[in-house]
Write a structure and sequence with these properties.
Blueprint: H1 3-18, H2 24-56, H3 63-71, H4 73-78, H5 80-95, H6 104-115
Helix pairs in contact: 1-2, 1-6, 3-5
Length: 121
């Protein structure tokens, strides 16, 4: 793995490991990647990255799932007005071509997955 790719993943792994938007599984996978490369450097990065990719695959929420959340559970969690604002924002994002949730965790995960051809942005 070249240094630019390594740095790209490292930056996003830091986000995945620290953001409240990440699930514990995602945080653990990001921390495992960081631990593996800390111990083995660039030589360990390829294998660690494959494991991270495998864990991340299927985790980012699609824009359609985010819209469904805004139409349902978000109303009870955040109130009608906040849910309606979020719904309008997400529908506009979809109309503009967005495919994925725009939270920190989903953004970092989709960027890593896209870098390796596992999803399209």
């Amino acid at each position: 793995m070249n240094k630019n790719t390594f740095d790209y993943i490292a930056e996003r792994a830091d986000i995945l490991a620290s953001t409240d938007a990440s699930t514990q599984i995602t945080k653990d996978a990001a921390n495992a990647w960081k631990d593996a490369v800390a111990a083995g450097g660039l030589d360990a990065a390829d294998a660690a990255t494959e494991q991270l990719l495998d864990t991340l695959e299927g985790r980012p929420q699609s824009i359609d799932n985010v819209i469904a959340f805004c139409e349902g559970p978000a109303k009870e969690m955040f109130g009608e007005e906040a849910a309606a604002e979020a719904l309008a924002k997400q529908k506009q994002r979809k109309a503009n071509g967005a495919k994925w949730c725009d939270c920190d965790a989903c953004t970092a995960a989709t960027e890593i997955l896209a870098k390796f051809g596992r999803v399209e942005l």
